[in-house]
Queue: 2 jobs
Job 1
Amino acid sequence: MKKPSFKKRINSTLHDVRPIRPVQRAHGKQAEDKAVRSPRVKEKGIPKSRKNIQFPKKLKKPLLVVLMVALALIALVFGARFLFQDKLGFGIAPSDFPQTLSELKDLIGALTGISSDINTLRAEGFNFALNGKGEELIATLKSLQTNVSKLDALGAGFLMQSNLSTASDGLDALITLLDKPGEQRFLVLFLNPSEMRPIGGFAGSYGEVVLERGNVKEIKVNDIYYPDRFLTKKIVPPIQLQTVTVGWGARDAAWFFGFPTSAQKTIELIEASEIYSKDDIKFEGVVALNVRVIEDILDITGPIKVPEYGLTLTKDNFLEEIQQEVEVGRDKKPGENPKKVLGALTPLLTSRLNELNASDKNALIFAFLARAINKDIQFYFNESKAEDFAKKIGWAGEAAALPGEFAGDYLAVVNINIAGGKTDAKIHQAIKLKSEIDSTGRVNNHLTVSRSHLGKNDEASWYRAKNQNFIKIFTVPDAELVRLTGSTPKDVQPQINYFIADYSVDPVLESVERTRKNIAKYSTETYLESGKNVFATWFSILPGESKTLEVDYKGTQLSLTDRALYRIIIDKQSGMESKFEYEIAAPAGFRWQESNGSTFIYKSDTIPARLEIKLTLVKE
């Protein structure tokens, strides 16, 4: 299977869907019953080095080439116009030619303007934002939006309507976000996948970015525990956290798999801290960055020295060095901020980004795009246009919404490390889902999640700890648990009696936990979250061990008809790279069109942000 290029993947819908290569038709009954395997996915879609990242060639060519492309586009657009008008019995009169020639001129002007605006943003975008030139940044974006709108209005939308519409929506959302009076604050959550949480890792540190009309006025980095020290609200935490914390704070607010919900709750609890509430400071959005994003930046900038700590940080040692400094470094003292090293790194990194040459800026842009596509960067905005656009292109991190009449399946495997050190850095995980559709049309699933802990002989104690993992398996709303084996039951006892203590119940958390049902037979609980039925249990593992969790459950009830469509959606947990295998058997008397057999198999070395497989049942 050919890996999609960036150009192909960044389209109007930007569903991060792995394409399925058509298979050749098998011959004979034996061949027909044999499973046809989809090819393995060998690459993750993430650039391994800046040398592999090439900026689109059309933006590097001279203006002459741009004009030649424009002329070709014009010929196609106006040729189509002639064709359709002629078929309708009208044609173009000689009097129309002056208008047509004027449109040609405007179309060339719009294309030239777009090329110029893109080149300006590519060369000066960072400079504009970081050096007090935000007005120029906004003006360039507005110019680009005007030219894109002209291109659409002049007929180019005939060939690429959806792409122009997406570009226009994105520019409109960005301009609306930046072109506001006064200061705006955004949270940046630095996620560490070594300690997994639902949105991709524990947010041990956060950044506070202050923007004003396109200018980055201030960037501050702090320990996520700091605002919680000044949180006066007493809130009952999620049940599974009650053994390790008495109250719920910003540090644990990202408890929900859907990023918008976790982002909203993080904003709410940070704003409630007296650090911000005393000055009525509000945040307009959240950007979550996986640690891999920082590694990509260091790959492009090269090593960065942090003299204050005697460190030289590179792509290869960043996580190890920072983890060492935070766990046992000089700032690991009562009353000190152990994440202060990140505050020292931030201005050095920002300065280096501002000094990048054109080639490295291109590499940085495409590294960011690749990480956003892989769900290593997630966005949430209070402003509706920006949030709607983030959802439209698949960067909002929400769980897939299933239609009311959904004929198919859904799966998301979500791991939550609770007091298990940084052991997820040493965990290898493989997921296999085997489904069978019975004669009544009911989908019967057998799911296995296999995990191995490779930290037994590691020098660092935080990697040798027991991986205490609370696992959530998101399925279709009408799924029914049949059997679960391999879990590691854990008795969760709260540290205080919340019924007599002066603690409030969070309404969002309560809306999930009130649906909770305990299945003692399997040491499992079920509940509803993000419109999905969730099976949840403890699945912990000691260093050096390998374990497998097995879950049998019934899925959707299908209507078995010829040419019936079947769809499965798999959402990835950010930061968790898992091998994945999917096998589905058609009911008796049917075969899958895509494999021309009774079984369809898909295998991949990793799960994309969202994998969607569409199949067709054919009656024999």
Job 2
Amino acid sequence: MKRFMPLAWYRGNIMQQTVKASRARVWLNKLKTTFSKPQNAILLALGILLTFSTVAPMISIALDTVTVHVGSVDSHYTGLKEGYTLYNWVDLFTGKLAQTNLWTPLLNSVLLSVFSCFGAIFYGGLFAYLVTRTNMRCKKYLSSIFIFPYIMPQWTLAVIWQNLFDSNLVTGTSDGLLTALFGIRMPLWWCQGMFPSVMVLSLHYAPFAYILIGGIFRNMDANLEEAATIMGTPRLKIFARVTLPLVKPAVLSTVLLVFSSAMGSYPVPHYLNLTTLCTKYVQMGEKRAGEASILAVIMILFGVLILIVNQRTTSGRQSYTTVTGKSGQISKINLGKSGKYIIAVILVILTFFTSIFPIISFAFETFLPNPGDYSFLYTGDTSNLTTKWWLTSENVTENGMYGQKGILFNEAIWGAFKGTLIVAVCCALLAGTIGLLVGYCVSKNRRSKWAAYVNNMAFLPYLMPSLAVGVAFFVFGSSMGIFNTYLLLVLAGTVKYIPFASRSALSSMMQLSGEIEEAAIIQDIPWHKRMLNIIIPIQKSSIMSGYLLPFITCVRELTLFMLLCSQTKIITTMLDYFDEMGLYAFSSGINLILIVFILICNALINKLTGASLDKGIGGE
């Protein structure tokens, strides 16, 4: 006999299935609606891409610290030929060479970074104050020339320091200009070590402080200081209690940027003989490959720490508003009739030696018959100069050039320069495009946690020391079989330089009202046409900077690429090769070519886009 269930049971069962079906459909509809917006789909793809490109090399280098390396000390002392071991960690932190291989380089790296921060902020901040808040003369010229040390390759001032102050008696190298012309021999602590390294990096990164702090000084409301003046507050107290607190955000930004950059600097400590984590990594080589990877992990941890500090200082911060609806007039400090000229002359002389003199010095070095032979200067005999380093067209006759042709006829040099341009163009196109998409998508999802994660992933490589990023990609590239290829160089450069484009794009996209794109959406205009015909043309100057900054930076990059390719692959590693060979005329010539090329590119950028690093501070 067939049993019939109650009608209520059928109704309840049908309703339950309908509810389940409707919940699934609601979820699918939400998912479909979310990804129907291009910025959400692109943001998801970018998050996955940046996670892989940033985290995968870090995982590779972390595994390398515990991997047994055949022919290395970990294999010798453990007796293992493969597998994993903690020997590298134990030996590096507690072994007999721990002081030499870890603690001294770590201390030097931290001290170098800290002192460079102080030096850059003091020099750059003081310069910004004089340009924006006083009646000093020659502001436009000084503002333009002050940023030259940052545009030039990092090692430029280190080499100039050597050319000026080295002496055979003190440093064991060829005599510099001061010794050759005047017989002045500076002490060893002045020529090599911590002091010159701090001075060079401070001068190199002072434009950071100038740009960041100068912008706040320029836009500061005069009423803030005038109110304190009316109350009878002394000028020095106004500066300490009103002016300095308002530039605190710029100071913190400068500290974070300079600290991370100085921590990852290799060329400056290398040229000036200071042992840091970067130079120690290179010195360890294959014999202590695992321990060297630990040094890179330590540098990466510093980058992560800096990112955390940056997040803490920029979120939930008290207000530092300096531009309001009130008077925007800037109160200028009167330096006096003679003071405004005296200070300007002092700065003109100082910037000459940091910006103009390097170009003259490198050009002059390429005409010396031998390094340090400045006899032409005190004899006036032009026969003591030579053009062989430029014009020798054959390498058969031994002319003290060690089988090399002159710079103008040297196929290896120009081949390396071509390689540099290939890498720079590819990095600029990839980093610029990815950075543009990151900036666009993050600006459209400002309150999204995933957008914040993608933004942090895009910015993290900039805060990580360049050598640490290079080491991570060296281990990753070696395991993938792409070592010494343009592909590996482009991958590393793209990841490292995405922050240039993403920050530039994000700032410009945040300025755009949502109504602009909404009007196009109402007209049913596709996303790619909205980007190409509306958004990009409006912010073309900022977006163009996002492509050009990676290009210029990549052209002068050494630290990031030096472990990823042979010394003849690109122009900066070839320069390092000539320095190791003692052919300083060739390295000086390459330095000169790089500086002139970068300055021409920078001038073209300013001409075509109107963009300038000092624009709005002391420039136009």
